[in-house]
């Protein structure tokens, strides 16, 4: 028993201390590995600090000079924006490719009088001359006009008002191809003639580039080449509307006192039907609702309203803007209600020499002998000799 108890006493605290495993220090190999990792960490931290400073400096330059990809993106975006702007602008400034439309005169005149209030155009604009032909039907002198216009595309536009029953058949190469506007019957000496002229102006006003408007007939010809005509019209300070006070029966004798107060006898004027006006005056003619009723109601046949309506109205409104003469030469020396008509036998160099001689007029308030740019009346038979002489006499 005593031996058992002694054995049991060995299981006490002293025995436990004698059986616990002894303390072992960390192996040297592991310690070296830990120290190596610590050293690598320190070195890596130092490298990162310098790298951050370097990249921070680079970001400053990057913010000042965008990358090529960034620049290309902005360039593409700017191009797209510009394209959209041009697309929107074109809906306003692009002239109709087809002159046919269903508008009546009231709708047509209303639409034509849309006027920009800012004079400076936010796009490139080449001012054009609108050549407006008021014709009964065919244009027998069209080949001469085609020759006149050739090579000057972009500086002119053409409009034709003829009998609504007439359907022209111009070749695609002609400047008159598909240039007929929706027309109505126009009778000589009546208000329907002025309606046709206003209709031509209104259709021509749809093209924002048309700056000057010339009224011609199928019997008119150009007396100079296009460059001379363009320069003469574009550099003029005045519009060419004949307007004068004629005291006899063919002037004041046509006045009706019922036109008061809009038009008095002292304001009554007469002038050639064939005119040239700038865009501002064209709008005035188309938008008029004050003088139109007076001339329609009181300038009946025998009054010849087309000789009085526009000259009187514009003289009342803007007298200083008128040259008080026409650009279209006409021979009234033979007398009668109509001017002289010239045919094949009349056309030669001597004819044009006499035509140009003796003319004197004012151009930009200076006296000159260059007074006419167009002439009438010429019969269809005059076409061939005109074509033969055009390069020598007319300059085209």
From TrEMBL:
Annotated keywords: Glycoprotein, Glycosyltransferase, Membrane, Transferase, Transmembrane, Transmembrane helix
UniProt KW ATP-binding keyword: no
InterPro entries reported in the protein's UniProt record: BC10-like (IPR044174), Glyco_trans_14 (IPR003406)
Cell location: Membrane
Signal peptide boundaries: none
GO molecular function term, any single one: glycosyltransferase activity
Protein's UniProt name: Core-2/I-branching beta-1,6-N-acetylglucosaminyltransferase family protein
Organism: Dipteronia sinensis
Gene Ontology CC annotation, any one: membrane
Transmembrane segments: 30-52
Pfam families registered for this protein in UniProt: Branch
Topology of this chain in the membrane: Single-pass type II membrane protein
The keyword Transmembrane appears for this protein: yes
